Amino acid sequence: MTDILAIVDRGSTDEQLVEEIAMRHPHRVTLLVEDEAAALEFDDSARGRALSDRIAALLAAIEQRTGAVVVGLAGSREQLCGWRFDRIVGAQGPIAAL
């Protein structure tokens, strides 16, 4: 089984991220949306709804393109303490250990 952490950032498009994930043939994917997801569940603004729509479309695209199961959505690295991933994709630059 291949577990991937996909970091959603402003440095790449969703299509690039899905392609990068697909190249690794994952079984399970967890999304990390650090910058903007802090209070996403309570954000009913136009920006919050747009982000929710983007994430929903991204989740569907990952599942359709890869056949992997998206197992979770995290808003901070602290939520992932103790989790292990085979690969981390989507981040620009070095990635600190989780």
Q: Which SSEs are present, and which pair or pack?
A:
Layout: E1 3-7, H1 14-22, E2 28-32, H2 46-66, E3 69-74, E4 87-89
Parallel strand pairs: 1-2, 1-4, 2-3
Helix pairs in contact: 1-2
Structural description of this entry:
This protein is of the alpha/beta class. It has one domain (3-89). 31% of the residues lie in helices and 19% in strands. The chain is built from two helices and four strands. The protein has a four-stranded parallel sheet, with helices on one face. Helix 2 (46-66) links the parallel strand 2 and strand 3 (69-74). The longest helix is centred in the middle third of the chain and has 21 residues, at 46-66. The relative contact order is 0.30. The mean pLDDT is 85.
Q: What is the CA–CA distance across the termini?
A: 20 Å
Low-confidence stretches: none
- Mean of all residue-level pLDDT scores: 85
What is the domain tally?
A: 1
What is the succession of H and E elements? Answer: EHEHEE
- Tell me the number of strands: 4
Described by strand count, sense and barrel closure, the largest sheet is:
4 strands, parallel
The structure class reads alpha/beta
Helical content stands at: 25-40%
User: Over all CA atoms, what is the radius of gyration?
Assistant: 13 Å
